[in-house]
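Hi, here's the filled form for the chain we discussed.

Project: internal
Contact: R.S.
Residues: 175
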Amino acid sequence: MTGATPRMSNKTLSFLSRLADGVAASLLVVIFGAFILQIALRYVFNWPVGWTSELSVSAWLWLVLFGSAFALREAEEIRIDFIYANVGWRVRRAMGVVGSLCILVLLGLSLPASYDYVSFMKVEKTSYLKIRFDWLYAIYIVFVVAVIARHLIGVVRLLRGHDPLRPDTQAHSAL
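And the returned structure, exactly as it came back:
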């Protein structure tokens, strides 16, 4: 039964990845639909409305943060790596560990204040759709926690010898 666990885990991860992609795609559909509806209402029916713009901005916020947290893969992230790509794997690993530790410390320190601020925003609502701002901005807390988890996993992988530029390598023999 031990051999079945990794396959089930891969199936679960694959399902979650497809689900995250589906949520991101759905948010894009909402943005596009609200945009087209706004144009039609304003220019075809001469009836300008504000809720379509508010819906687009809210969906965009969720798309960016949800997508960055769950749909974006490490290889798809944009990086300026002209130094990183031209050094040996040990230096890359050290740079990766230091960079991830910096992100972990900074986001970890900001998390309590971010949570307090998002919680405080329950007293405000959006103008048209009356969405509470704590619900609207809750995705930021999810984003921070996901990025912290991603970088914790990344540090562990780097310390085990994973070379980020060579995805086919599991680990190097020497640290």
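Let me know if anything looks off before we file it.
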